[in-house]
Description:
This protein has about 180 residues and is of the alpha+beta class. It contains five helices and four strands, in the order αββαββααα. It folds into two domains: about 5-110; about 110-175, no CATH class. It is globular, with a radius of gyration of 20 Å.
Amino acid sequence: MTTGHALTDKLRGWFTGRLPKGLYEGPPEVTVDREEITVIGRIPAPETGEGASEVERSAAVAGRIKEFRERTRHARIEVAAEAEHAFGRKVSWGVRCGDTVQMFTTLSVPVMTRLRQSERQLLDTLVNAGVARSRSDALGWCVRQVGEHAETWLAELREAMRTVEQVRDAGPDLG
């Protein structure tokens, strides 16, 4: 059985070896779940003149990201097709340029859940207040809020899960 951590390591290695040399500055960040592999690579930030305004720097970064996306499209599509065939998951791409992270493609996967009336009322309040267009959007908004505001706790939980995977992998093979 391949654990999540081992699979992520395998995918990170595969993409590091398979991506065209010089595509990114260093190895890419690779994240994986049941449906999707996300690959984010660092590209060099553009040089702006001394005293450049925040607006100018932001526009330069946006231009650099657009240029990179267009120039590397064919190569990324080719690598994604190979990875999707080999690993059975869609590939999403993004870049990190300076402090900016921009995703080019991502999956939006439906998730089914059962909610009690009080939970549905919370979603309906978000819809009625204009925070979200639908219950589905409201639930996505709630998940993003938890992700942003509970990152320390989630990081500790993920580390604990990695430790469990390591202990499980070190145990006897019962297969």
